[in-house]
Amino acid sequence: MAKVSMTVNGKAVSGEVEGRTLLSTFLREGLGLTGTHIGCDTSQCGACTVHVDGKQVKSCAMFAAEADGAEVRTIEGMANADGSLSVIQQAFQDHHGLQCGFCTPGMVMAAASLLADNPKPTEAEVRHHLEGNMCRCTGYHNIVKAVLAASGQDAGQIAAE
Amino acid sequence: MPKDGGIGASTKRREDVRFLTGKGRYTDDINIRGQAYAWFIRSDVAHGKINSIDSSAAEAMPGVVKVFTAADFAGVGGIPCGWQVTDRFGKVMQEPKHPVLADGKVRHVGDPIAVVVAETLEQARDAAEAVEIDITELPAVVNMKAALLPDSPKVHEELTSNLCYDWGFVEENKAAVDEAFEKAAHVTTLELVNNRLVANPMEPRVAVGDFESHSGQHTLYTTSQNPHVIRLLMGAFVLGIPEHKLRVVAPDVGGGFGSKIYHYAEEAFVTFAAKALNRPVKWTSSRSEAFLSDAQGRDHVTKIQLALDADNNFTALRTDTYANMGAYLSTFAPSIPTWLHGTLMAGNYRTPLIYVNVKAVFTNTIPVDAYRGAGRPEATFQLERLVDKAARELGVSPIELRRQNFIKPDQFPYQTPVAVVYDTGNYHATLDRVLEISNYAGFEARAAESKARGKLRGFGLAHYIEACGIAPSNLVGQLGARAGLYESASVRVNATGSITVFTGSHSHGQGHETSFAQVVAEMIGIDAGQIDIVHGDTSNTPMGMGTYGSRSLAVGGSAIVKATNKIINKAKKIAAHLLEASEGDIELKDGKFTVAGTDKSVDWVGVTLAAYVPHNYPLESMEPGLEETAFYDPSNFTYPSGGYACEVEVCPETGKVTICAFSAADDFGNIVNPMIVEGQVQGGLAQGIGQALMENCAYDENGQLLSGSFMDYAMPRADDFPMFTVDHSCNTPCTHNPLGVKGCGEAGAIGSPPAVVNAVIDALHRAGRTDIAHIDMPLTPSRVWSAMNA
Amino acid sequence: MHNFELVKPSTIAEAVAALGQEGAQALSGGQTLIPTMKQRLNMPDMLVSLTGIAEMKGVCKGDGGLHIGAATQHAVVAKEAAAAYPALAKLAGGIGDPAVRNRGTIGGSLANNDPSACYPAAALASGATIVTNQRSIAADDYFQGMFATALEEGEIITEIRFPIPEKAAYLKFEQPASRFALTGVFVAKYPSGVRVAVTGASNDGVFRWAEAEAALSANFAPSALESLSLSGEGMIADLHGSGDYRAHLAKVLTKRAVLAAS
């Protein structure tokens, strides 16, 4: 067991982990941040997407010890300071960008990462960026719409109803 | 209508807030103090005899609590099947035993052999490697037709063969159908495969068992679409636990698509082990394990034939289908290729004579059961591919051939030759509508533009009918169902007027917490925010049958309407008393009770308060309180229908198919929340297009799963699709449920696969490749290229 | 997965020392290794993380062309190589998905030499030099078949040096599930001639297509490939495509890469 310390959603945390403890396990079981989900074991579904030092990563494909000293952000840290939904979260609700909600945290984290780099993406860029995040419910239609809307673009103009 | 909260409003979903902030509570988020972890040791061969299991070394390993094998389950029932099909000779199907843990034999890769329970999951996995299992591998049978040969290995020794049943429908029609084929002016024949699929909801299955020794109370937390069904099946048939001592909770569930209907061995295991060990036991499936243990979908091999007269009228239809059951009968498996498939073979057409034969076959593969659409996609795919092929053979437009043979709008209710009666529909309207929204008129110009870029463009059409809102319990009972198919609701009005609705239906993405509240808000005329929907816990909801078959609103919603009407009736009585008027004069509008033709009124809260503080109340004739329960059992199925149009581009160099546009014109009857309905269709389309183009669950000849992870099972991603055009403006309300709704959950997955394949075939034919009559799904680049280069 | 000890050296020397221990393996971005360990197909006693070694990171121009530290993530290559070697940057930007590109490294990819990976095609087509803690290996000598390389036990890649071509392009036809290359072709035109490397297709891993190289060296145009064909013999055949299909794709992609080369 080794001690790791990191900042998660702005709060300093630490805990004892084994070498094999994944970052996702540390977040879910160590810190009780169960918004980060595990949907596969081959690092493809993206439900476990979080930000480490500002970059989106799959927390099931990174050891907790590798995040020692890092700034980690999870879905629990995405709302506005007053607890209201952030622009991206609100766009997902407004445009019905989620159904069962399981892929949603990863989608929001991936979308946030895209919009940080590319504030006005095209539909194709949104779809391409979400390549590593699987959703089985929405057919992606409303997720793409939500991300475009969150970027301030008129999703109604782009998206067929 | 209450502002933004009643029927017909695209009310934003209230459940979204918890999901968007990471506050959803899924089964894997539940950890009970003191819980141990279960790891299932599964067979790595498809067929084998278990000679011995030695767990002594494993049991001595750190953290190991116990290793369970079949021996621990002596005296425990097997996993039950919920539907008994009777074959064409009047004999009941062959029904093999399905032990919780493999007993003596393993019958598919993934068949559970033993379970290690340990203090941590990793300790359980470590110890699993030390369990010594000696298995003699036996020849496996994977191909259905081979499985029916006399010398085939038998999946189950206790059965006479690998044939589960040989079903004929309608058996009495067979001779007349054959005769019609004799007389036909033209016969179109098509052989096709409906590919095996894996449902793959993004949340893998999880089960946590808990036991309270002092009260004898069992609790199972599970990823289920129907917790009451699990309580009934597991309690009564497997573990012998009476309902009052068994609570089943399905909290937030991350998608199901059918795969979370069934009662699985892992649920029985954790419930059993929690008592045996007197501590909570948790099992979480990995995705790799899900590929080996979740019931899979479809897997039909069919020959279908259509007879037409000289005027291109359909005169008869016959089909021969082999349906793969896998190694065991999953909960509803026998019903899928029969009652959910054969009864839909009329489609949207007036074909007067139909005969459907289905042979259900056991193989050494993972069990197969319902997957989104369940039987109806199989029927629709065959029929809509066949009609397209017939049109090409006859040199007529597939659009016009459909139009000519559609049931006409004035023929409803329409009795089909395959038992069901369609109450309403207007297929001509949805056909016209889909041609309009897909801008079919502009297709030639788009095809020319594609051609200029070296691509082959095609347009494909498909129409579907489905039977949803399952179902009349007395009817399905006659057909072999071992359960009822009603739904329940309790409406509890609180003293200050807020309402808690308890539904037996379950939401795992469908948005019931929002749309069900809209129904009640509309009926009473109060704000939807005053109404909460509770579901998923057998300890506080009335016995319900759960969510599948696009039934939640049609059946569960109707139960809520019934219970709410009881509430309104009683509330009117209370209002009449308070207003000193006769009950018949009381009108409820916008949450206010008024004496007709006067300005005398009492508001909703005035009445609800009176019900719970009955100081001025007719206690002699009425009980206080305001809480009602209703069960709704439908009198018929509902029949959503629609026209789907797909436009594709095929790359002639690589065979890659790109979806350029997809349009859906659906008739769902009345609609409560259009936003949610559109979302359901979009999701269904993605699954149907996924089936058509990329998803394929494949086994090798030894029964090894070739597509056992997302590395080989192609899940559709965001960049596989364009934006979809979905429309629900053509609607003919259902005539036999109070909301006039039909159900929308499965439509997208039913109508889209034939539309996609028809579009690809159209593209190839337009490019002169009229020799390619059919390509089996999925139409991967390599398959299309191979067809073009055969 | 089995437990192990994770060590995080900050210099190449420390990493090499750690890797000298029994059961030690290098961990780079982990995007392939971690899933393999979850399946318990790989069970190291110790993982030596290379991603914290500053001297193994970064993209810069040098004598050998473009020098890329082995622990540099794909996302960084996609950005920082864009000006000097756009085809390479584009390849890096097309590996996996954004999250994978933020973790996965060029050195990790080359050390693993997955037959469907993208980077091996770039290294081989560019005639890159694989620099390790011990020596420099020419790409032509480095790739030795599926998952096999010239690396010795305990040897780690520290840097990759890419000679910059006049023109180049990489085109990948994705396997529909994994989105690895079902077949990928990297074409690079140098003053000395054209090099063509094919990944995803062969049972022997990445390979150079000599006939295409000769034809394109004489005439750098898609038409130069018209009369050529690759045999499906020895090509990977699986659920996603036959050997013939892969061989066919290799030709189609080579033509497209020539057209796309800039």
Automatic annotation (TrEMBL), chain A:
Keywords: 2Fe-2S, Iron, Iron-sulfur, Metal-binding, Oxidoreductase. Gene3D superfamilies: 3.10.20.30, [2Fe-2S]-binding domain. InterPro entries: 2Fe-2S-bd, 2Fe-2S-bd_dom_sf, 2Fe-2S_ferredoxin-like_sf, 2Fe-2S_ferredoxin-type, Beta-grasp_dom_sf, Diverse_Oxidoreductases. The keyword ATP-binding does not apply. GO terms for molecular function: 2 iron, 2 sulfur cluster binding; metal ion binding; oxidoreductase activity. PROSITE patterns: 2FE2S_FER_2. Residues 2-78 form the 2Fe-2S ferredoxin-type domain. Pfam families: Fer2 (PF00111), Fer2_2 (PF01799). This is Carbon-monoxide dehydrogenase small subunit.
UniProtKB/TrEMBL annotation, chain B:
GO terms for molecular function: iron ion binding; oxidoreductase activity. InterPro entries: Ald_Oxase/Xan_DH_a/b, Ald_Oxase/Xan_DH_a/b_sf, Ald_Oxase/xanthine_DH-like, AldOxase/xan_DH_MoCoBD1, AldOxase/xan_DH_MoCoBD2, AldOxase/xan_DH_Mopterin-bd_sf. It holds the Pfam family MoCoBD_1. Keywords: Molybdenum, Oxidoreductase. The keyword Oxidoreductase applies. It comes from the Bacteria. Gene3D superfamilies: Aldehyde oxidase/xanthine dehydrogenase, a/b hammerhead (3.90.1170.50), Aldehyde oxidase/xanthine dehydrogenase, molybdopterin binding domain (3.30.365.10). Residues 21-139 form the Aldehyde oxidase/xanthine dehydrogenase a/b hammerhead domain. This is Carbon-monoxide dehydrogenase large subunit. It comes from Gemmobacter aquatilis.
From TrEMBL, chain C:
It comes from the Bacteria. Keywords: FAD, Flavoprotein, Oxidoreductase. InterPro entries: CO_DH_flav_C, CO_DH_flav_C_dom_sf, Diverse_Substr_Oxidored, FAD-bd_PCMH, FAD-bd_PCMH-like_sf, FAD-bd_PCMH_sub1, FAD-bd_PCMH_sub2, Mopterin_DH_FAD-bd. The keyword Flavoprotein applies. GO terms for molecular function: FAD binding; oxidoreductase activity. The keyword Flavoprotein applies. Residues 1-167 form the FAD-binding PCMH-type domain. This is Carbon-monoxide dehydrogenase medium subunit. It comes from Gemmobacter aquatilis.
